[in-house]
Specification:
This protein is an all-alpha fold and 114 residues long. The chain starts with a helix and ends with a helix. The protein has helices spanning 2-14, 26-33, 37-43, 48-55, 63-78, 84-93, 97-113.
């Protein structure tokens, strides 16, 4: 069992980039996406119906709340496959390239601290 522990450690090290907790960056993304949250939702694979449900939910006061809810649902739906890379790709596809760039920079900064 000792060898399996060191194996786990090794695999964790090599896949560190993909193991970044994407939820850490939701706040930053939400702040910048704002009114464009529907575009992002579509790129993250949500249907028009999904988007309408979030849009008409009275709990969500503004676009930031709605964007946060979409990111939360995306993370819940995809679990470990909800990665920073996928979020970045969706942002670019949604025409939010500057947000994708900021996300990449923030992740890089986080890695430098490790």
């Amino acid at each position: 069992s000792k060898s399996s522990i060191s194996e786990v450690k090794r695999s964790t090290k090599s896949s560190q980039k993909s193991d970044v907790d994407v939820t850490k960056y939701f706040g930053m993304v939400v702040k910048q996406v704002g009114i464009r949250w529907k575009d992002l939702a579509e790129e993250l694979g949500f249907s028009l119906q999904d988007v309408q449900v979030v849009d008409h939910n009275i709990r969500h006061r503004d676009d930031k709340d709605k964007c946060r809810e979409i990111l939360h649902r995306w993370h819940q739906r995809n679990g470990r496959s909800a990665t920073v890379r996928l979020l970045k790709e969706a942002l670019v596809q949604a025409g939010l390239k500057s947000v994708a760039q900021d996300l990449e920079d923030a992740v890089a900064m986080g890695h430098r601290e490790l």
